[in-house]
Amino acid sequence: MQCCGNLKNPSVLVIGCFHGDEPQGKYLIEEYLNKISSTNLLFIPCLNPCKTRVNSNGVDLNRNFPTENWVLGEKNEFFGGESPASEPETRFVIETVEKYSPKLILTLHAPYKVVNYDGDAFEVAQKISDITGYPVEPSIGYPTPGSFGTWAGIEKKIPTITLELDEEIDVKLLTEPVFKIFEMLEEY
Hints:
This protein is of the alpha/beta class.
């Protein structure tokens, strides 16, 4: 795990590959970083390098955050760990957020083709919707105890966007709209 971008004073944190079986974010971030010479964004291209939803310990990182609604659940693909923030990847994200205090966070997921948001992020979510054509959804539609969005967007009050990308098309077709999103966020 590493961060890329302007590490002095980034206003936006972008995280790819929260789930290892959603590689679109990693590809798009790396392509963007190869295209530009400098950026005001802070990137974590790939949080979970495993090729599965869960990390190497069988934990869904997007259910492992120390939220008020975290629960010890069944050991399945949504297992939130034995305790909140039990995973090194989770602690890395928490430390990164605490160190850089971003004003906005964007995470790249797949496959729902929606712009989900937590906290005071509706306006930015709408701008992203205008670029992608995906609808804005304040809820993903199912419970997400221990989620990053709850931790960052609701409890830490950092506007947080979960961009659910289309996994049914070639990821190269996502380059143009996602680069437009990154360019818009450069001005945030």
